[in-house]
Design goal:
The complex is a heterodimer of chains A (345) and B (603). Chain A is α+β, with helices and mostly antiparallel strands. Chain A contains eight helices and ten strands. Chain A has a five-stranded mixed sheet, with no helix packed on it. In chain A, strands 4-10-9-6-7 form a five-stranded mixed sheet. In chain A, strand 1 and strand 2 form a beta hairpin. Chain A is elongated. Chain B has a single domain, classed as Cytochrome C Oxidase, Chain A (Up-down Bundle). Helices cover 61% and strands 2% of the residues of chain B. Chain B contains 18 helices and four strands. A two-stranded antiparallel ribbon of chain B has the order 1-2. Chain B has a two-stranded antiparallel sheet with strand order 3-4. In chain B, a hairpin with a 2-residue loop joins strand 3 and strand 4. Chain B starts with 8 loop residues before the first helix and ends in a 14-residue tail after the last strand. Classes of the chains: A alpha+beta (345), B mainly alpha (603). Chains A and B meet through helix 1, helix 2, helix 3, helix 4 and strand 7 of A and helix 5, strand 1, helix 9, helix 10 and helix 11 of B.
Chain lengths: 345, 603
C-alpha cells in the first residue's frame, strides 16, 4: 500500500512538472521567444552564483560534520608520512579548487548575456598559456618529489630487527603464522594444504624451520614500537590486507607473495583511551573484491607490549605438534595410547 | 579526394527535383533499411544514443537497488522479493545479487553507455557533419559496428537472467576470482557470457574506431585542414586512436581468461586451494591480467572523457559567443593526454606488490597528466571570461562538466600519488573520485551534446524547462552524492562493502549512507524525466525554424533542418576559416564557409 502511494505521488509530481514545463514553453512562444529566453538566462545566471556560494558553505558544513568521523591519528610510523602527504596535497588542491570554481561560476554569472556587452574576441595568448603550464608543472613536481621520497621510505627494506608474520587470505577469513623461536618461517607448498590434518597453510614438515611455527586464525598480535614485516599470500583468489589505522595496504595474491612493513606506535589499550571508545579494536579488512563474503572478511589485530606478546605466544602450541601429536614431548600420553592400541590390535 | 564518389546518386538526383519534400523524392527506402539496418551515419548515431539510453536506465536502476542496500542495510523491501525472488530473499538484497548488481552497473555504464552511447553517438553524428562528408568512410562497417554492439548487449542482458546470476567479480573481472567457477555463483556461466559479450563489444568498438579515424583523415571537405577541425572532431579522433590501440589488449586478456576458465590453461593461475580443492595449476600470474586489463582500462577513462571534453569546448565557445581560448593548446593537451593515457596504467596497481621503483615512475607519469588537464580547465575558464553567455541547457551542462572535472581531477592528484594511494586504494574515495571525474562529468558532456545537437538530430528542441530542472537537480545531486563519499574513503572504508555494521572502524556513516541513497533515487527519477523529455520532444517538441538555431560556425548547421542521407543537397560547402570566429570584427559569428574578407583581422 505504501509503495502504491509513493508511486502515485511520484507519478502525480511528474505529471505536474510536465504540465508546467509544457505551459512555460507555450508562454515563451506567446510572449516572444527571445524575451523569455533572456529572462531565463538571468535566472540561471543567478542560480549559478547561488550554487557557488551555497556550495562553498556546503563544503565547509560537510567538513565540520564529517571530519571527526575519519580515522584520526595514524597508529604507525608510516601512517604519519601518509597523513602528512595527504594533508599537504589537500591544502594545495583545496586552494586550486576554490580559485577555479569561483572563477568558473563568477565568470558565468558576470558575463551572462547582456545587450550592452559584446563578447571580447580573445583567441589565444602565449603568455597566459605558458603561465598555466608552468605553475601546475612546478606544483606537481613538488608533490611528486615528496610522494616518491615517502614512497621509497615506506616500501624500502624492513629493518633487521623486524619481527615477521605471515598473513594468508582465503575466502573469507585470515590466517597468520609466526616463525617461532628460530625467527624463520618454514617452507610451505600449496599441495600440502590439508586443514583436516591440521596443516591449513601447507607447511612442509620435513623442514625443521617449521617445527616451531605457530598458527593462529583471525587475530594477529603485534608488539608496540617494534617493526613488523608481513609476508602476505592468498590461497584462492586475490585479497588485500587493509590496515586503515596503520594506513597500510597490500594485496594478497595467490602464487606471488608480497610484503609490507611498518611499526605500530600505539597499543590497543592506548587507542581505546585515545578514541574514547572502550570497544576499539584494530581491524584488518579485505580491500580487494574476493567473492560474496568480501564485505565481512574481517580480522583483528592486538597491539601490545613485548611482555604481553611473549606471554601470548608462549600459550600457543606450534602447529607441527598440533599436526603430529606423537612428536609432542609435553604429551607423552599420546604415545602410550597408541602403543596400547597397537597391542590390542 | 573526391566527394562525388561518396554521393549517393539517388539521393542527390532526387533532391535536385524535390526540395522540401523529403521522403517522396528519395529513392524509396524500406523501413528496415532506413531505421534498422541503416547505413546513414545520423541514424546509426541515433541508434547508439537510444540503445545507450536504455542501458543507462538499466545500469542506473542497478545502482538505485544497491544504494537501497547501502542506505538501509537492516530494512526489508518486500517489493524487491516480488521482482527478484531468491536474489532478494525476505526483501533483503543477497550478497551474490549485490555483487552482480555492482559488476553490471560498472560494466554497463563504462562500456555500453559512456563508450558506445557517448562516442558511438557523437562520433557518428558529428564527424561527417562537421568535416563536410556525405557519410563515414565505410557506412557498412559502421552499421556492423552498431549491430555488434547490439549483440554484445543481448549477450550481457542474457547473462542477467541465467540462474546462477550475472558475472559478479567487479567490472575489472580480476582472476583468479573470475577464473574459478568454484569461487562463487557469479563466477559460473555469467562470467563466460560477460567475456563473450566484451569480446563482441571490442569488435564493435574497433570497427567504429577505424571508421572514425579513416573518415577524419581522408574525407574532409575542401579547405578543411586538420587545424580547422572543430575540437569535438579532434577529441573523437584521439578517442578512436586510443580505442584502436588499447581494446585489442583487453581482448587478449579476456581470451586468456576464457582459456583459463574452460581449457585448463594457467595464464593467471598458480598455487590455488579453493573450498578445500587443490588445483593443479602452477606458474601463472594473476597480476598479468591486471596489466592487460589496465592497459586498456586507463585509456578507457580517456575514451570516455575526451569526447565530452571536445563537445564541451565547442558548446562553451558557441554559447559564450567567443572563440575557444587557445585552440592549439587545447589540441596539444588532447594529444598529450592521449599519449600519457598509455603510460600510466600501473597506478591502478600500486599495492599489488609492484616493484616500488616502477611504482615511482608511474607516479611521475600519472601526475604529469594533470598538466594538460589544468591547461584545458584554464582555457575553458578564459573562454567564459568576458563572453556574452547564453545559458541554454547545453551550456549549463558544459559549465557543470568543467566544475565536476575540476573537483574529480583534483582528487586524482591524491590517488595518483602512490604514498597516499596506499591508504586510499580501493576505498570509497576511489569510488567518489572516478564517479565525479569520469562518470558524472562525462554524462554531463553527453547531456550537453544531446541538448545542443538535438535540433540537428530531430529538427525539434527539447523542452527547456525540463532541461533546466534536469540540470539543476543532477548537478546538486551529483555533489551531494559524491562529495561526502570522499570522507568514507578517508576513513578507510573499502569499496564494495554491502553492510558495514559488523565493523568497529567503518560503521559511523549510517546517516550519510541514507542521505546518499535518497538523493540518488531523486537523481535517477530526474534522469527518467530527461528520457521522457527526449522521446516526447522527438515527436512533439517545439519545431526548429532556422537551420542554424544557435548561431554556430560549424558545417553541420549549413545543412537543411532535417538533412537526408548524404547531408548536403548540392555540393558540399567549402571551408575557408577555423570554426571559432565568434564576435570577431564586430560580427556575432562568421561561419566556416565564409571566405576571409580583405580587411579582416587575424586571430
Amino acid at each position: 500500500m505504501q509503495t502504491f502511494f509513493i508511486v502515485a505521488i511520484l507519478a502525480l509530481g511528474f505529471l505536474i512538472t510536465f504540465q508546467i514545463a509544457k505551459a512555460s514553453e507555450y508562454v515563451a512562444v506567446l510572449r516572444g521567444y527571445e524575451k523569455a529566453r533572456k529572462q531565463t538566462n538571468k535566472i540561471n545566471g543567478f542560480m549559478l552564483l547561488a550554487f557557488l556560494i551555497i556550495g562553498l558553505i556546503g563544503v565547509y558544513y560537510c567538513n565540520e560534520k564529517l571530519k571527526g568521523k575519519i580515522l584520526g591519528e595514524p597508529a604507525s610510523d608510516h601512517g604519519v608520512l601518509v597523513d602528512r602527504m595527504l594533508y599537504v596535497t589537500l591544502l594545495i588542491t583545496f586552494i586550486v579548487f576554490v580559485i577555479t570554481q569561483v572563477a568558473l561560476f563568477w565568470f558565468s554569472y558576470k558575463y551572462q548575456e547582456s545587450d550592452k556587452r559584446k563578447a571580447f574576441y580573445f583567441a589565444h595568448s602565449n603568455k597566459l598559456e605558458l603561465i598555466w603550464t608552468v605553475i601546475p608543472a612546478i606544483t606537481l613536481t613538488i608533490l611528486v618529489g615528496f610522494g616518491i621520497f615517502y614512497w621509497f621510505k615506506i616500501t624500502g627494506d624492513a629493518p633487521k630487527n623486524a619481527m615477521q608474520v605471515e598473513v594468508v587470505g582465503k575466502q573469507f577469513g585470515w590466517e597468520f603464522r609466526y616463525p617461532g623461536r628460530d625467527k624463520i618461517l618454514g617452507k610451505k607448498y600449496f599441495k600440502n594444504v590439508n586443514p583436516a590434518a591440521n596443516n591449513p597453510v601447507g607447511q612442509i614438515w620435513d623442514d625443521p624451520a617449521n617445527h616451531d611455527d605457530i598458527f593462529v586464525e583471525q587475530e594477529m598480535h603485534l608488539v608496540v614500537n617494534k617493526p613488523v614485516k608481513l609476508v602476505i599470500g592468498a590461497k584462492d583468489v586475490i585479497h588485500d590486507v587493509g590496515l586503515a589505522h596503520f594506513r597500510m595496504k597490500m594485496d594478497a595474491v595467490p602464487g606471488t607473495p608480497t610484503t609490507m612493513w611498518f611499526t605500530p606506535t600505539y597499543t590497543t589499550k592506548q587507542m581505546k583511551e585515545k578514541t574514547g571508545n572502550p570497544d576499539f579494536v584494530y581491524e584488518l579488512s579485505c580491500d580487494q573484491m574476493c567473492g560474496k563474503g568480501h564485505w565481512s572478511m574481517r580480522g583483528t589485530i592486538v597491539v601490545e607490549t613485548q611482555e604481553e606478546f611473549d606471554a601470548w605466544l608462549a600459550s600457543k602450541k606450534p602447529q607441527y605438534l598440533v599436526a603430529n601429536p606423537d612428536k609432542d614431548p609435553s604429551a607423552p600420553k599420546a604415545d602410550t595410547v597408541k602403543q596400547v592400541a597397537a597391542v590390542i590390535k | 579526394m573526391s566527394e562525388a564518389m561518396n554521393v549517393h546518386s539517388g539521393v542527390d538526383a532526387a533532391h535536385a527535383v524535390h526540395h522540401d519534400d523529403h521522403g517522396h523524392g528519395h529513392h524509396e527506402q524500406s523501413f528496415i533499411s532506413k531505421y534498422i539496418f541503416s547505413m546513414d551515419h545520423k541514424t546509426i548515431g541515433k541508434q547508439f544514443l537510444i540503445t545507450g539510453m536504455v542501458w543507462a536506465i538499466i545500469g542506473g536502476l542497478f545502482s538505485v537497488l544497491f544504494r537501497l542496500q547501502l542506505g538501509y542495510p537492516d530494512q526489508s523491501f518486500p517489493i524487491l522479493e516480488t521482482f527478484f525472488g531468491n536474489w532478494a530473499k525476505g526483501g533483503q538484497i543477497q550478497p551474490e545479487f549485490y555483487y552482480g548488481l555492482v559488476t553490471m552497473h560498472g560494466t554497463v555504464l563504462v562500456f555500453f553507455v559512456l563508450t558506445a552511447g557517448l562516442s558511438g553517438t557523437f562520433a557518428n553524428l558529428l564527424i561527417p557533419l562537421q568535416i563536410g562528408a556525405r557519410d563515414m568512410a565505410s557506412p557498412f562497417l559502421n552499421m556492423l559496428s552498431y549491430w555488434f554492439f547490439f549483440i554484445a548487449g543481448i549477450v550481457m542482458l542474457a547473462s542477467i537472467f541465467v540462474h546462477t546470476g550475472p558475472a559478479s567479480g567487479g567490472w575489472t573481472m580480476y582472476p583468479p576470482l573470475s577464473a574459478l567457477r568454484q569461487a562463487g555463483d557469479g563466477q559460473k556461466i555469467g562470467t563466460d557470457l560477460w567475456l563473450i559479450s566484451m569480446a563482441l563489444f571490442i569488435v564493435s568498438s574497433l570497427l567504429g574506431g577505424l571508421n572514425y579515424i579513416s573518415t577524419i583523415l581522408n574525407m574532409r571537405t575542401k579547405g578543411m585542414s586538420m587545424t580547422r577541425l572543430p575540437l569535438p572532431i579532434w577529441a573523437m579522433f584521439f578517442t578512436a586512436v586510443l580505442g584502436v590501440l588499447s581494446f585489442p589488449v583487453l581482448l587478449s586478456g579476456a581470451i586468456l581468461l576464457l582459456f583459463d576458465r574452460n581449457l585448463g590453461t594457467s595464464f593467471y593461475l598458480s598455487d590455488i586451494v579453493i573450498n578445500g580443492e587443490i588445483l593443479p595449476n602452477e606458474g601463472g600470474s594473476a597480476i598479468l591480467y591486471q596489466h592487460l586489463f589496465w592497459f586498456l582500462g586507463h585509456p578507457e577513462v580517456y575514451i570516455i572523457l575526451l569526447p565530452a571534453m571536445g563537445m564541451v569546448s565547442e558548446i562553451l565557445s558557441v554559447n559564450a559567443r567567443k572563440p575557444i581560448f587557445g585552440y592549439m593548446a587545447m589540441l596539444g593537451s588532447l594529444f598529450a593526454i592521449a599519449i600519457l593515457a598509455f603510460l600510466v596504467w600501473a597506478h591502478h596497481m600500486f599495492v599489488t606488490g609492484l616493484n616500488p621503483f616502477l611504482g615511482s615512475v608511474f607516479v611521475l607519469l600519472t601526475l604529469l597528466i594533470a598538466v594538460p588537464s589544468a591547461i584545458k580547465v584554464f582555457n575553458w575558464l578564459t573562454t567564459l571570461w568576458r563572453g556574452n553567455i547564453r545559458f541554454t541547457p547545453a551550456t549549463l551542462f558544459a559549465i557543470g562538466f568543467v566544475s565536476l572535472f575540476i573537483s574529480g581531477g583534483l582528487t586524482g592528484i591524491f590517488l595518483g600519488n602512490s604514498t597516499i594511494d596506499i591508504h586510499l586504494h580501493d576505498t570509497m574515495f576511489v569510488v567518489a573520485h572516478f564517479h565525479i571525474v569520469m562518470g558524472v562529468a562525462s554524462f554531463f558532456g553527453m547531456f550537453a551534446g544531446v541538448y545542443h545537437w538535438f535540433p540537428k538530430m530531430f529538427g525539434r528542441y527539447l523542452n527547456n524547462t525540463l532541461g533546466y530542472m534536469h540540470f539543476w537537480v543532477t548537478m546538486i545531486g551529483a555533489y551531494l552524492i559524491f562529495w561526502p563519499m570522499h570522507y568514507q574513503g578517508l576513513a578507510g572504508i573499502p569499496r564494495r562493502y554491502l553492510d558495514k555494521s559488523g565493523w568497529v572502524s567503518f560503521n559511523q556513516f549510517g546517516e550519510l549512507d541514507k542521505m546518499i541513497t535518497i538523493v540518488s533515487i531523486i537523481v535517477f527519477a530526474v534522469q527518467l524525466m530527461f528520457v521522457f523529455n527526449f522521446f516526447y520532444s522527438i515527436f512533439k517538441g517545439r519545431k526548429v525554424t532556422t537551420p542554424n538555431p544557435w548561431g554556430a560556425n560549424t558545417l553541420e548547421w549549413t545543412t537543411k533542418i532535417n538533412p537526408g542521407h548524404g547531408n548536403w543537397e548540392g555540393e558540399i560547402p567549402e571551408v575557408h576559416r577555423w570554426p571559432y570566429d565568434y564576435s570577431k570584427d564586430g560580427r556575432d559569428f562568421i561561419p566556416q564557409t565564409e571566405p576571409i574578407g580583405a580587411n579582416e583581422s587575424k586571430h
